[in-house]
Design brief:
The chain is elongated. It has a 4-stranded antiparallel sheet with strand order 1-6-3-4, with no helix packed on it. It has a 4-stranded antiparallel sheet with strand order 5-2-7-8, with no helix packed on it. It has one domain: Lipoxygenase-1. It is α+β, with helices and mostly antiparallel strands.
């Protein structure tokens, strides 16, 4: 899966980073995170690769090359060699030190989002409580 990243504020910064929170890798599985200088996975790239088994957690890939990554516009590709993995969140960010605090960040796959049905049930229950309270007064 490929994601296009346009960060604000723009350059200069020293490192492009990707952080992936996932549910682990099975034995024999591998995941690759690639950063490309241009959008849609074009241009020079830098790649990090991990092999299973890995427990659930966070993988962080940080690079300062090729220089085209450091202009606030790049793309990220996440590939799994066999099977599938469950990703809780995926964030691209810029920093001035390797794995450093973000200058700018973009959530490519945000953390958990409530299901619409759960929100509807919550709204109905709050409305019911409101009507019940109104009736009792």
């Amino acid at each position: 899966m490929t994601f296009n990243v346009v960060l604000s504020p723009v350059a200069p910064y020293s490192f492009a980073n990707v952080e992936m929170d996932f549910l682990g890798l099975l034995s024999g599985q591998g995941v690759t995170i690639s950063l490309f200088e241009d959008l849609d996975a074009n241009g020079g790239s830098a790649t990090g690769a991990w092999a299973g088994p890995l427990p659930p957690g966070v993988l962080t890939f940080s690079t300062d090359a090729p220089p085209g990554l450091l202009d606030s516009v790049f793309s990220v590709r996440v590939s799994v060699d066999t099977g599938t993995i469950e990703v809780n969140s995926l964030t691209a960010y810029s920093s001035n030190t390797q794995f450093g605090p973000p200058i700018a960040a973009l959530n490519l796959i945000p953390g958990s989002v409530p299901e619409p049905a759960i929100l509807a049930l919550l709204a109905l229950s709050l409305a019911g409580l409101g009507f019940a309270r109104r009736k009792s007064h």
